[in-house]
Specification:
The complex is a heterodimer. Chain A is an alpha/beta fold. Helices cover 39% and strands 24% of the residues of chain A. Classes of the chains: A alpha/beta, B mainly alpha.
Chain lengths: 248, 272
């Protein structure tokens, strides 16, 4: 892997909450068009890594570059703006804006943050709703949608920013098994389209199928980083073996 | 045979309220027969003065109508100030947060009457801005004097409502590139507003009651009129005037308080 060409480059980042060191030197690089899955036990710092990548959390030490943004050097929300344009995020709890319809949820940020033309954004938003198979739910409020439908609206909202990277943080963890499938299908299509994705997930089967690479994190470190076939079938580290033994 | 009356809470409440109303009606009837009717007639004749500040009821220059106007103007000012103050107490920067906290606590713990007197003496008779003379008549001083403590109390309502919005909303908005003022404007305040309405209405009812204090600024509100224009009525009749005034405030504020409580229950029901 040629490091200099990577779209995302994370080098030895440290992050503590109070006395508790959550990230103890994480390094990772992601190439354009790659889908990287992060797996690992609860509390190992998976969400924290994602939040650091798009600057939601400041890091204590280390280097993060996304495209030509040096994330660790950005200080204000205003400086973060171009970065947030490039990196979208989808959350476990969907976090749709409950006072806006599905369509408005998708249209808000491109208009209010990026300053795009309303008509053009609406056109884009409707196409995205079609893409996530919710063309008929444009005028529904989030409270009227199922979890899986809300999550797909959230994915469309992230896509509407026309990002180069999307971060998915356990986006199916709050869903019931029936709706997990439809959300995973949507994500798989994005990966197939060549969008760069970093996915934190508990869906091992899904990770094996879509990921180009899988990272196993434990207690603030990336213990193992390998193509899915290697990591799942031939794990090198005993901690990886133990974890996979529990979940598979 | 064992007969018991099982009354629900609502039933008991209705019974008590009915009893109180009946007692009041009975008292009024008995009193009216004992000569009170004449006094009530006197009140009735002067009612337009009490309500509008004019014996004929028109044009409106004061009276209870002025109290209402004062309450609305103060509430408008307090809403703007209180929202800004409430948001400031939540600011990241201590340079904004600490002064806001100090102002809020200072105003919340000052007697309203003292604040009104203070405004009377602190605010100048008029100010000149670029040669433009802006007068500060007593009414404006009363508006400001009442708006300040109301704003401080409202800021707590705003603060509570904003804090009750799930942190995921902040995170999602920040991830979409919104700045803090934009997040308040487009995401947080529209949601917090519904949760603020009951507290806002309660405060408005309180403020309306407190407008009676504004008599110290010398405006022709209902209390000033009672104390000046009606001062020559006999002492006995004045009691009836005061009862009427109390009833006016009650009739205006109680429905608001009831409505606020209803809304409170309705808002509690939906946890968006
Ligand atoms: N804002 C915070 N303040 C204090 N501690 C935090 C904060 N956010 C996360 N932590 C702690 O950091 C650790 C790692 O959290 P993180 O959310 O990254 O874990 P995770 O790997 O995503 O776990 P999960 O699979 O449960 O989501 C946890 O022990 C958590 O309690
Ligand atoms: Mg997590």
């Amino acid at each position: 892997m040629k490091r200099s060409e990577a779209l995302i480059e994370i080098d030895n980042i440290h992050k503590s909450f109070g006395d508790f060191e959550v990230l103890k030197g994480i390094s990772l690089s992601v190439n354009e068009g790659e889908a990287v899955c992060i797996i690992g036990p609860s509390g190992s710092g998976k969400s924290t890594v994602l939040r650091c990548i798009n600057g939601l959390l400041p890091i204590d030490e280390g280097f993060i570059r996304v495209g030509n943004h040096r994330v660790h050097e950005l200080r204000s929300e205003k400086e973060m703006r171009p970065l947030r344009h490039q990196v979208s995020m989808v959350f476990q709890q969907y976090n749709l804006f409950p006072h806006k319809t599905a369509l408005e949820n998708i249209m808000m940020a491109p208009i209010q943050v990026l300053g795009h033309e309303r008509a053009e954004v609406e056109d884009r938003a409707r196409k995205l709703l079609e893409k996530v198979r919710l063309g008929n739910k444009a005028d529904s409020y989030p409270g009227m949608l199922s979890g899986g439908q809300q999550q797909r609206v959230a994915i469309a909202r992230a896509l509407a920013m026309q990002p180069e990277v999307i971060l998915f943080d356990e986006v199916t963890a709050a869903l019931d098994p029936e709706t997990v499938k439809e959300v995973l299908l949507t994500i798989r299509e994005l990966v197939d389209d060549g969008l760069t994705c970093i996915l934190v997930t508990h869906e091992m089967k899904f990770a094996r199928e879509v990921a180009d690479r899988v990272c196993f994190t434990d207690r603030g470190l990336i213990v193992e980083n390998a193509p899915p076939a290697d990591l799942f079938d031939n794990p090198q580290d005993p901690r990886t073996r133990e974890f996979l033994g529990q979940v598979l | 045979m064992n007969m018991t009356f099982e009354l629900s809470y609502e039933g008991k409440k209705r019974l008590v309220i009915g009893g109180v109303l009946a007692a009041i009606a009975a008292w009024i009837a008995v009193d009216a027969m004992a000569g009170g009717a004449e006094h009530w007639a006197r009140v009735f004749v002067r009612l337009p003065l009490l309500l509008t500040g004019q014996g004929d009821g028109w044009p409106i220059t004061g009276g209870f109508a002025l109290n209402i106007l004062l309450s609305i103007a103060s509430m408008a000012v307090a809403t703007v100030l209180g929202t800004l103050l409430g948001i400031s107490t939540l600011a990241q920067s201590p340079y904004l947060r600490l002064p806001a906290f100090f102002i809020m606590n200072f105003l919340r713990n000052s007697p309203w009457l003292v604040l009104l007197f203070a405004m009377l003496f602190i605010l100048p008779f008029q100010v000149e801005v670029f040669g433009l003379r802006i007068p500060f008549p007593p009414f404006v001083k009363a508006v400001i004097g009442l708006a300040l403590p109301t704003a401080a109390n409202l800021s707590e309502v705003v603060r509570g409502a904003v804090q009750s919005i799930h942190s995921g909303q902040w995170e999602a908005a920040r991830a979409l590139g919104y700045t803090t003022p934009q997040i308040y404007r487009h995401v947080i305040l529209p949601q917090a507003l519904r949760r603020m309405i009951p507290g806002w209405m309660n405060l408005y009812a309180l403020l309306t009651i407190a407008t009676a204090l504004a008599t110290v600024t010398g405006i022709q509100d209902v209390l000033t009129i009672l104390n000046t224009s009606l001062a020559m009525e006999s002492e006995r009749v004045l009691v009836y005037f005061y009862l009427t005034t109390l009833f006016l405030f009650f009739a205006y504020c109680y429905p608001i308080a009831i409505f606020a409580r209803r809304l409170e229950r309705a808002v509690k029901g939906d946890n968006i």
